Amino acid sequence: MRVLLINPPHTAIGSRIPDDHLPPLGLLSVGGPLVDAGHEVTLLDAEFGPLSIDEIVRRTARRGPEVILLGHSGSTSAHDTVALLTRRLRARLPTARIVYGGVFPTYHWREILEEQPQIDVVVRGEGEETTRKLIAALEAQTPLSEIPGIAYRVDGEPRATPPASIIGDLDAYRVGWELIDHRRYSYWGGKRAVVVQFSRGCPHQCNYCGQRGFWTRWRHRDPVKFAAEIARLHRDHGVEVFNFADENPTTSRPAWRAFLEALIAEGVRPTLVGSTRAGDIVRDADILHLYKEAGFERFLLGMENTDEATLAQIRKGGTTTKDREAIRLLRAHGILSMATWVVGFFEETERDLVRGLRQLLSYDPDQ
Fold first, then answer.
1. Reported pTM
2. Do 2-160 and 181-362 fold alike per CATH?
3. In this predicted model, what pLDDT tens digit does every residue of 282-336 receive, in sequence order?
4. What gap in Å lies between CA 220 and CA 166, rounded to an integer?
């Protein structure tokens, strides 16, 4: 089938990096298996420009897709844009099937199908295998009820099939890198860049985060194969910067160390940036030199709050002592720290916010 992947323009300005663009890893991860299944797959990345709704509709119509797949890395803030865009696409392409996936639609499939009649199917959870089965069923005109992990309408009413099994072997599906022109994507000051993912899921029980419910169990790719893919992208496509999409790539110290050592052994020196927990940095104090040697230049640390009681209440599992120590250790190894902070967990006064910000600044992160 003719399948078009659309990356809608970012809605929230905080999602946009001036003059730099990163490729939509989620859509490319879905696209690779579809290409391998024999479908004609193309990508329209509307973040370039960004394209107007009118222009996206015009370019989509020219391609004449049978199926339109939409997803977004910032899926909550982008939902209004997706709703408007899909209404316009439906009016212009009445026979195309419109499929919507991502974190927001996974949690809000019922409301979406009730409020957005132009959207035919919602993919819930990981998309690689579910989308492959869905496109095969649309092509063969077989019942959608047999496909786990989707939501659609039956007699006008939203209905969800049972959840799909999580993908145990993350190396079983490849990213469709051939769908992008690597020369168009950059980060870290205009360097050629991609987004990669070593692991999925999170073993922690933070009660404010939706990632655990989306990815469920924490899993990781084969460390040696993952290092080889980074090295290949660096050598063959000139990719210099690799932005890790993982919530917690360092969860397993043995697996993470194996990856670092495998990448060092590849003999390349890319720039790596990612996110992790302060506790893992403190745990790995004795191997942080491997982080640096492999190419890490910055880690975002989700500290969320500077009050011990609040950290316990949100089940963060961290401590202010570890947060401070992680920043110190990263700095000692020449790795930048970026500290993030969440506002509005509970009833907070303006005084609480000012006090918390002052405490965070006292940690002295680099960003």
1. 0.92
2. no
3. 999 999 999 999 999 999 997 666 666 676 666 666 677 888 999 999 999 999 9
4. 12
- Find out whether 124 and 160 touch, Cβ atoms under 8 Å: yes
Read off the pLDDT of residues 182-228 as tens digits, 9 standing for 90 and up. 999 999 999 999 999 999 988 777 766 767 677 778 999 999 999 99
Q: Which of 208, 284, 286 is nearest to 247 (CA)?
A: 208
CATH of 2-160 given 2.40.50.140, 3.40.50.280, 3.20.20.80, 1.10.569.10: 3.40.50.280
Identify the pLDDT of residue 127: 95
Give residues with Cβ within 8 angstroms of 237, minimum separation 6. Answer: 177, 182, 192
Instruction: Output the pLDDT for position 141.
Output: 96
* CA distance linking residue 230 with residue 295, whole number of Å: 11
Q: What angle do CA 167, 212, 220 make, to 5 degrees?
A: 40
Task: Enumerate the domain spans of the chain.
Answer: 2-160, 181-362
Q: 52 exposed, middle or buried (CB, 10 Å; 0-12, 13-18, 19+)? A: exposed
Place of tokens 């929230």: 12
CATH number for the domain whose boundaries are 181-362: 3.20.20.70
